[in-house]
Amino acid sequence: MTLDPVHFEGITQLARRITQSVDETDQTEFVETVWDEFLDPLVDDDGRTVLCPLGEQRRCEVPIEDVALRDAEYPTCHGLDSGTINPTTFKNGLVLDVAQAAMASTPSELDLHRDRTVVITAHTNDRTTDLDDGWTKWDEGHTDRRILQAPRVSSFEESVVHELSLYLAESHHAIEHAESVSDLFVLDGPIYPKGMLNWADRAPELANLLYDEEEPRDVIANYVELVETFADRQIPLVGFVKNPSTKAITRALRASGREAPWVNDTAFFTKVLEQVEFADRTGPDGETYRERERRTDVLTFTNWFRSRGGADRLLAADADAFGVERTLDPVDYEVTFFPIYDPRDDLLYRVEAPYAFTKNAECRERLAMQLLRDVAAERGPPLAVEKADELARIGADETESLRTELEATFATDRLRSYNDRRWGVDAPAGEEF
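^ that's the sequence the OP posted. Answer follows.
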């Protein structure tokens, strides 16, 4: 233990000074103002609508015990997830990541659970190398596998191999097993490859890949095809985002000259949906502070919103989708969402779906009640998504074994940093500059 009790007390005293200078009551009032006055619609500084409600803008609550016991809106549910070993750099200059995708269902289908898609994406500076060998079958036909050669970049190699592996495995597996889905399909994460789409705003070199290279465009085309496939079959496709980090609302407000005190839209919607009361308390040092008491017996949520800001703008009706052909009305591909706040863990989730489904009010209501039921019962994502996560996850021991085997295969060591020694196999990546 590196902090003595006296240090804890000193830090707490400093924190109380911050509390005195940051009035949460004022923030709550501003959140209410934004909710009441700025979201119907929210317009950026160019006059473009980036957010608008579908139907009536409202906040709702449902008792957790009651909604958990509701009958499912959809008799069966299929979930899909993709996991990776995280980018690995070797001393010979090779950078790669390995991803596997899996689909699960409720009720369970064991043959479906066995199927996998495995993608290795590699970045090499050797211009004479051609690693891509297309899709092949393995494990008695239960696994699709592929080596993908990443477009050459002078920086951000780890991001490129990671996102290409993750999203190619996920989207390919989803398309290949779409016929298995009969009622509802839930992706573990957003409905489009947000990590890759964020390249458009991250750096010019990454943005150019989206427009100039076929590998990322092929991945985006897979997700477009996925929307079209399920829209044609009239089976809802949704994404369950466990850690949403969008900033469309905060950016639009700041661009208009209004200082938003929260760090992102998740913090905003948490403020909108959290039900708290404040009481004055006196600390051991005699100083007064405010204590928060949160109501924990209900899930709270809003109406659905149509989103055309941030990365969502890139698949909006007025965007070109990087030249990917779209067969539906362009507006049908737009991202819609609603947040669910679970006070038991103080977590906010974001449920996404293409406008192709949520333009129908009955479908919006059914999807909302299905996901609320799942969150209440599972205290997190739908059970099918949790199962898919367990199937697709590559654990720490497996990751270490794979990396060791790859070192032997390449006859070289992976490039290590001090963080590897300090933190082990899941060491956090260093910041890029």
